[in-house]
Amino acid sequence: MVKDFRSSIPPQITLLSRSVVFENTVFSVFADHIADNSGHQVERYLSVLPKYLVDDSIAGVAVIPVANERIGLIRIFRHPVGRWSWEAIKGHVEPDENIQAAAVRELQEEAGFSVLPDALLDLGFTAPEAGVIKARTRLFAVDVEQSAARTVAGELGHGEMVFYSRGEIEMLIAEGEIEDASTLVLLFKYWFQQHERP
């Protein structure tokens, strides 16, 4: 068993001041003046805070639908990097919504699959960009009925959803077609959990 040292280590960085740089309905962006215990300082450290967090800094969910041992990924164009990639279904938890309900809603909205919350396989957490964003993502997989390619409607930059075998996904990763950190961690955790099952 790995010991958790996080609770026994005092905070290493102190927030000296904070200025709002930008806000929208989902995020607040700050320029923080911070200092560590050795006296090092950064006067405009970029910090992004989601407007809504639940249970230990969870701001979002990522979920992969699985059908006949094939994993569904969505083709998405990401404006900041100007590239297409294959990604898990992802989204923010809304106010007054628990994490499982958010995963079920995102699965329905982005891929058209209806599942019950207790059908979700909980695969833990990831911190997509812990150096900048105060947010963790809860990871899930869920068995679904359909495994054919399908069109994903209603989301900016979203293309089709395709179900891939593990070998095909490994090839997509090797070719740089899957770069999203949350998707990569989710795939790893899902495959690791499947391998560890009795």
UniProtKB/TrEMBL annotation:
It comes from Methylomonas rivi. The keyword Hydrolase applies. It holds the Pfam family NUDIX. Its cofactor is Mg(2+). The keyword Hydrolase applies. Residues 56-186 form the Nudix hydrolase domain. This is GDP-mannose pyrophosphatase. Keywords: Hydrolase. Belongs to the Nudix hydrolase family. NudK subfamily. PANTHER family: NUDIX HYDROLASE DOMAIN-CONTAINING PROTEIN, UDP/ADP-SUGAR PYROPHOSPHATASE. It catalyses: GDP-alpha-D-mannose + H2O = alpha-D-mannose 1-phosphate + GMP + 2 H(+). GO terms for molecular function: hydrolase activity. CDD domains: NUDIX_ADPRase_Nudt5_UGPPase_Nudt14.
